[in-house]
Write a structure and sequence with these properties.
Belongs to the D-isomer specific 2-hydroxyacid dehydrogenase family. It holds the Pfam family 2-Hacid_dh_C. Keywords: NAD, Oxidoreductase. By secondary structure, the chain is α/β, with parallel strands linked by helices. About 30% of the residues lie in helices and about 15% in strands. The strands form two sheets. A seven-stranded parallel sheet has the order 8-7-6-9-10-11-12. It has a five-stranded parallel sheet with strand order 2-1-3-4-5.
Length: about 325
């Protein structure tokens, strides 16, 4: 989806940036007035702005549309935009762009950390360390990742990076995306459409969920779909918790059909302390931390500068969200 904008005059920053990145932004686009704003003064900043960098300060898209009559563009600090696509935004002419590309490296490394942690059964060894007990005898349930099959469901920027890094470790990667036609990302041996998802799940030693949350992907991994996964496989969710039915996941783990799950996201979130997932053997929960990286601000400012230059020059913006598709 392509969209262009007239040059931006004032941009309200509703996402904290380190001073060095703020100065880099101002130096790169000197004709734009950048206004840093927080929870107490965001309304005043947005009222005069024609663009906003929206982060996680509790301000919603509808809040912005109500406070900023001149808004033409909202750039999010996250790749996922499911919570931003309100009816009011869909009906407005405001352009929404996301931060796809900011978290590719760190989330891919997070997935591989989980996968290799299961390969060497680090949860068992970590438990022994907490007990200050030197473990004797063979470590159970070890495996070697090299030569195993990884199915990446969702081949966007994050899914593609996971595939490339996993292939470098010797895994055989199958990718699943809405449109299987076209060139496969680096490291992907085979690309299929969502209509073939159930078939390729039966070949998977590992399944990574890297899809956006939309009406079509809500509870995509229900009991029937999880039953299609190869017995003894591992499932990793670094997308949105609502894509996986938590009760179905618990049942698949309890029965032994799945050997384990690496969950950076859950449904609900935060996960209540009463959830049995916390106590289920074979489950590693990382509390939605896969997106954290010391490089995120730098990569986000790269995207912001790029889009501001594109607006200045009348070129199509990068990472424009299609409100119909939901990503």
């Amino acid at each position: 989806m392509t969209r262009t904008l007239a040059p931006i005059r004032q941009l309200a920053l509703l996402h904290p940036l380190p001073d060095a990145e703020f100065e880099r932004l101002r130096d790169a686009i000197p004709e734009v007035r950048f206004v840093r704003a927080g929870p107490a003064d965001w309304g005043k900043a947005v009222a005069q702005a024609d663009a906003v960098l929206l982060g996680h300060q509790g301000v919603t898209v509808d809040d912005l549309l109500g406070a900023g009559p001149g808004l033409r563009w909202i750039q999010t600090a996250s790749a996922g935009v499911d919570r931003h696509l309100t009816a009011r935004l869909r009906a407005s002419p405001v352009v929404l762009t996301n931060a796809s590309g900011v978290h590719t490296v760190n989330i891919a490394e997070h997935v591989l950390a989980l996968l290799l942690g299961f390969a060497r059964n680090l949860p068992v060894l970590a438990t022994a360390q907490q007990r200050q007990a030197w473990r004797e005898g063979p470590v159970p349930d070890l495996f070697e990742a090299e030569g195993q099959t990884l199915v990446v469901v969702g081949l966007g920027a994050i899914g593609g990076t996971i595939a490339r890094k996993a292939a470098a470790l010797g895994l055989r990667v199958t990718g699943v995306r809405r449109d299987p036609v076209g060139e496969a990302p680096a490291g992907v041996e085979r690309v299929v459409g969502l209509d073939a998802l159930d078939t390729v799940l039966g070949t998977a030693d590992h399944v990574v969920i890297a899809l956006p949350l939309t009406a079509a992907t809500q509870r995509l991994f229900d009991a029937q779909r999880l039953a299609r996964v190869k017995p003894g496989a591992y499932v990793y969710n670094i997308a949105r918790g609502a894509i996986v039915d938590p009760d179905a996941l618990l049942a698949a783990l309890a029965s032994g059909h799945l050997a384990g799950a690496g969950l950076d996201v859950t449904d609900p979130e935060p996960l209540p302390s009463t959830s049995p997932l916390w106590r289920t053997p074979g489950v590693v929960i990382t509390s939605h931390t896969s997106g954290q990286t010391p490089r995120s601000a730098h990569r986000l400012v790269d995207i912001l500068i790029d889009n501001l230059l594109r607006a200045r020059e009348g070129r199509p913006l990068r990472n424009v969200v299609d409100a119909t598709r939901g990503y």
